[in-house]
Design brief:
313 residues; 6-stranded mixed β-sheet; single chain; alpha/beta; Nitrilase/N-carbamoyl-D-aminoacid amidohydrolase
Amino acid sequence: MLLQEEVTVRDLRNNLRVAVVQAEPALFDQKTCLEKALKKIEECAENGAELVVFPELYIPGYPFGMNFGFATGCRNAPGREDWKRYYDNSLLADGPEIGQLCDAAKKHGIYLSMGYSERDGVTGTLYNSNVMIDPEGRRMNHRKLKPTGSERLVWGDANRDYFPVMDTPWGPMGCLICWESYMPLARVALYEQGISLYISANTNDNPEWQDTIRHIAIEGHCYFINADLLITKASYPKDLNEIHALDARPDILCRGGSCIIDPFGHLVSECIWDEEAVIYADLDMQKVPASKMEHDVCGHYARPDVLRFDFDR
């Protein structure tokens, strides 16, 4: 934590225009996903967005319903081929595709948050990652701490980039990916850094998730930006070895449900289901300090003499 003498007090901007992009990825196709993302970024900037947020694993998509040939104690060659195809379409954190996203943020003068499958530059491991980029093209990477359920067959546990928080003109901004938000101490690691903007890049269209995001917004007294994917069977290439695993599933595999919640737990945008959309919202950032009058989770409502917390920075 910053020592008191290291803290710089400054005025923050009162208003922020956010765009949440609920888009359908072209699964296993980084090139098409990136091209679509760049067009969406331009569209959002033209509509006045200062922060543009994409969902979890937008590039090259979340392979919903696939197990890549894994079963307990065994694998198979066709599944390995599908995994290698996904691996080949994942991105390096410092690769040219992320560079193009940085250039787009600089060109349009925006902050950008993008979920992507990260391919480690040294090992053969993939990570479920999210990158935040500022208008100067500077980036901060976050790797998902613990992939959920069978995601662990595809992506590894984070080994760095745990809880980055980016300074913005509207206050600190951080991100947790999907079910990381069900890890209470992970949330506290962001609250301890004073976040005003809590980005959740996710693939969670369960109805109870909508209750979760309201709780977190109230708990942290911050804006909760809920960015979810739309995934349909049409998202997948037809020549995957495992494509028939989706036969019994509905055409829409992930319905979305993207929205923005204010620090009091109220919707400040529409909540979109079953279609692609860009959700725009104009946020009154004065609600963040105002909401902390009676509850400041790491301030006057904390008891550090009784409950102590630390995390790996």
